[in-house]
């Protein structure tokens, strides 16, 4: 117990007296100042704070107001999910402030390795600490509801269970440094089109089971210091103004004790945000402050609400390194972190196809690299998920580092073409929106037939890279984005024709942040490696896998459908919306504007697929897919044997012996799906309920993997009675290598229905939508 003393004649000082005493000493203006960030100039939040001539950490997204007379310092908040985003250089300062670009969220989740992700978090959090930042605005864990969401690369999966587990690992890793995280964007921020004005219309069941579940897991398992509310409406109410979301669910039901902040400029009614329990408004505008003061003065907002939020902000500040006076070095160990990023990337890349092509045999020395992305390898997405890194290892550099000889003629051909195209499409450096705009990439080039023939004769193998990038404000498109362009199709076909004609192989490398169409062309090349956007060491990591220095063990955390329209959400997604960045950006000013006619999928989106997101849909409705959820090849094989189940301490415990039956050492991501009886309500055919990554198993070596499912995790949400229930009846535990490759099936029975938890009857639909049953 701490005892505080304070001489009544002195002004209470934060840290010396209780928080309540500090709050008592604050004027209304000071309280309101604390609840609102210092603003945002030039698309970074690095306004100088009071009493300073420069910002605390240039390029950080936001800063809180200091109140020196009460010993309240400013704290600094900065993005993001793939690493810290701050300015790499500063005026009148010769030092550089580069950060490590780690792999994007989707790749990290594809490792299925909790320990690995926690290690990445530790390294990321160390840069946060050593560059003087207090809270990292990450991890981001919205559900991949649709393959075209522009920010899927920042997120983890179409499945809430793995999203929550990976997010919890990331939070633990980052926060182990004594800095905070902000899990975002709470909740159901699943499209970028009109993201500040879109109303998500979904059943409480879909919200609870799919869109909130990952956040619930992360909150309960890892205690993030903060939660960032999302831009969108949920059933008619802005997330940041929703007392039901932020107080009834987040705080009452999940017992979240930290601070909630808005997404940047999110919501439109500051008093409603304060009342809902959205403590901090970021990046903060003077108008927000005026609105709050006016609401207090006219009695529509209570001082209790203000004091409650101020208290939570002060608790956050008390925990921060800046309050504790941490002397940051501005010199994190970038070398060590580069090694961490390289290793984690290697474990999250997914081998989709391999017909005796990989690992490359030792006699393969001369490599031809096709595809413009081979020369401009993409390390991550754009917008706030981007990182200012010191370098980016291209595929070419990675291959050279690994000892391969790259064909120079092809290099010259591509580089001349790319330079000329880039010159035509230069981004305007004076346009502040340019950081949010994906670079215009040159149209894919197809080398002439004689060149292809020559390459096929002179080199031992062809690598062909297909790249995609996306980011905030805009969703992806079907044509030339989800689908390959005509030139990309032709390039794959023609390179394969030329190489196969002389008995040589072609490997396609997908350098994408999300799902693309693969069904129409995957039969043509000999191998396909999904390299994702792997951070600044991407080229080295790909070379590690091609060479066999690393045996791939990543698996998909989302389904690759045959066609875009196959995804259950596609009919209710703005796939044909004509995007224009200026209009999208003006949504900052126009949000909340009353429109005469609401445009479907833009102003509102009906979540008609309900709980059937991703494999829950494809597997329940027996749809063919190109690559299923959980899929990924290895250079070795694993057998699954002797599965058993027992019930202990209110949890189902599954054991399974995994044996490396091949010739190369490797790891396996083992998945446990549960099929529920589905008598009292409709259920997905199966749901992921546990997973584990084996250790590095030598050929012939085996390991018993334990997969634990607490009884309450079997529950589904009964929307009629607002409760989580575990049905009675016959269940099966399906242990497999992917959602469509189940190796062991164990049945168990639950004699009686169990009501796990009664909940608030909140977030109910206000409009009628017709959901899939
Ligand atoms: C993004 C957030 C980000 C914030 C601050 C917003 O545009 O949606 O994810 O943390 O900006 O940069």
Description:
By secondary structure, the protein is of the alpha/beta class. The chain is built from 20 helices and 28 strands. The strands form 7 sheets. The protein has a 6-stranded mixed β-sheet with strand order 1-2-3-4-6-9. Strands 10-15-14-13-11-12 form a 6-stranded mixed β-sheet, with helices on both faces. The protein has a 4-stranded mixed β-sheet with strand order 8-7-5-17, with no helix packed on it. Helix 13 (395-401) links the parallel strand 11 (366-370) and strand 12 (405-406). Helix 2 packs across helix 11. 56% of the residues are buried. The protein binds beta-D-glucopyranose. Beta-D-glucopyranose binds at residues 61, 79-80, 137, 184, 263-264, 384, 472.
Mean pLDDT: 94
Question: Count the helices. How many?
Answer: 20
Distance between the termini: 55 Å
* Range of strand content: 15-25%
Ligands: beta-D-glucopyranose
Strand element count? 28
Instruction: Trace the largest sheet across and list its strands.
Output: 1-2-3-4-6-9
Which value, in Å, is the CA radius of gyration? 26 Å
| Sheet with the most strands, sense and barrel status | 6 strands, mixed
Structural class: alpha/beta
The residue fraction in helices comes out at: 25-40%
Overall 3D geometry?
A: globular
Low-confidence stretches: 1-8
């Amino acid at each position: 117990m701490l005892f505080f003393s304070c001489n009544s004649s002195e002004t209470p000082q934060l840290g010396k007296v209780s928080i309540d005493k500090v709050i008592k000493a604050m004027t209304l203006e000071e309280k309101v100042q604390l609840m609102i960030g210092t603003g945002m100039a030039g698309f970074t939040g690095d306004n100088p704070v009071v009493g300073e001539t420069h910002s605390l950490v240039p390029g950080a997204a936001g800063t809180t107001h200091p109140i020196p007379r009460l010993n309240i310092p400013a704290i600094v908040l900065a993005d993001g999910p793939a690493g810290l985003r701050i300015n790499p250089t500063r005026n009148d300062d010769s030092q550089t402030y580069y950060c490590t670009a780690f792999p994007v969220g989707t790749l990290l989740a594809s490792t299925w390795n909790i320990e690995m992700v926690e290690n990445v978090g530790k390294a990321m959090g160390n840069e946060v600490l050593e560059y003087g930042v207090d809270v990292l605005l990450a991890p981001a864990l919205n559900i991949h509801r649709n393959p075209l969401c522009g920010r899927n690369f920042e997120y983890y999966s179409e499945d809430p269970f793995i999203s929550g587990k990976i997010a919890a690992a990331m939070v633990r890793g980052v926060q182990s440094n004594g800095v905070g995280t902000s899990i975002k964007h709470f909740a159901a921020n699943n499209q970028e089109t009109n993201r500040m004005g879109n109303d998500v219309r979904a059943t409480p069941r879909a919200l609870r089971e799919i869109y909130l579940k990952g956040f619930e897991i992360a909150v309960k398992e890892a205690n993030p210091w903060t939660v960032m509310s999302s831009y969108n409406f949920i059933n008619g109410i802005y997330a940041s103004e929703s007392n039901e979301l932020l107080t009834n669910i987040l705080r009452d039901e999940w017992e979240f004790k930290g601070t909630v902040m808005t997404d940047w400029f999110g919501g439109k009614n500051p008093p409603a945000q304060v009342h809902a329990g959205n403590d901090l408004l970021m990046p903060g505008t003077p108008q927000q402050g005026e609105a709050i003061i006016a609401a207090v003065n006219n009695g529509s907002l209570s001082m209790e609400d203000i004091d409650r939020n101020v208290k939570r902000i002060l608790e956050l500040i008390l925990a921060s390194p800046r309050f504790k006076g941490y002397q940051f070095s501005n010199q994190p160990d970038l070398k060590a972190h580069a090694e961490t990023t390289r290793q984690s990337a290697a474990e999250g890349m997914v081998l989709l196809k391999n017909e005796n092509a990989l690992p490359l045999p030792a006699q393969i020395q001369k490599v031809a690299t096709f595809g413009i992305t081979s020369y401009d390898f993409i390390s991550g997405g754009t917008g706030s998920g981007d990182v200012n890194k010191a370098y980016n290892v291209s595929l070419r550099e990675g291959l050279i580092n690994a000892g391969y000889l790259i064909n120079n003629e092809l290099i010259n051909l591509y580089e001349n073409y790319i330079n000329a195209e880039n010159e035509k499409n230069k981004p305007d450096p004076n346009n502040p929106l340019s950081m949010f705009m994906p670079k215009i990439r040159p149209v894919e080039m197809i080398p002439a037939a004689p060149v292809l023939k020559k390459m096929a004769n002179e080199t031992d193998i062809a690598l062909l890279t297909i790249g995609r990038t996306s980011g905030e404000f805009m969703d992806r498109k079907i044509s030339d984005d989800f689908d390959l362009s005509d030139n990309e199709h032709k390039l794959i076909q023609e390179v394969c024709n030329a190489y196969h004609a002389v008995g040589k192989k072609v490997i396609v490398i997908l350098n994408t942040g999300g799902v693309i169409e693969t069904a129409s062309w995957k039969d043509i090349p000999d191998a396909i490696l999904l390299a994702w956007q792997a951070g600044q060491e991407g080229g080295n990591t790909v070379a590690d896998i091609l060479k066999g220095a690393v045996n791939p063990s990543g698996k998909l955390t989302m389904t690759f459908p045959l066609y875009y329209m196959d995804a259950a959400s596609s009919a209710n997604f703005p796939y044909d919306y004509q995007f224009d960045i200026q209009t999208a950006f003006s949504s900052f000013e126009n949000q909340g504007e009353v429109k005469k006619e609401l445009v479907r999928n833009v102003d509102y989106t009906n979540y008609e697929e309900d709980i059937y997101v991703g494999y829950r849909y494809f597997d329940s409705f027996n749809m063919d897919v190109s690559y299923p959820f959980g899929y990924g090849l290895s250079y070795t094989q694993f057998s699954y044997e002797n599965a058993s189940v027992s019930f202990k301490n209110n949890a189902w415990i599954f054991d399974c012996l995994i044996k490396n039956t091949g010739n190369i050492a490797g790891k396996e991501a083992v998945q446990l799906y549960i099929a529920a009886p589905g008598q009292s309500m409709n259920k997905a055919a199966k749901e992921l309920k546990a997973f584990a990554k084996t250790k590095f198993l030598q050929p012939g070596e085996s390991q018993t993997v334990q997969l634990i499912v607490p009884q309450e995790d079997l529950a589904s949400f009964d929307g009629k009675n607002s409760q989580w229930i575990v049905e009675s009846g016959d269940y099966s535990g399906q242990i497999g290598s992917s959602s469509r490759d189940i190796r062991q099936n164990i049945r168990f029975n639950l004699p009686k229905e169990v009501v796990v938890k009664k909940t608030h009857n909140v977030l109910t639909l206000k409009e009628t939508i017709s959901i899939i049953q």
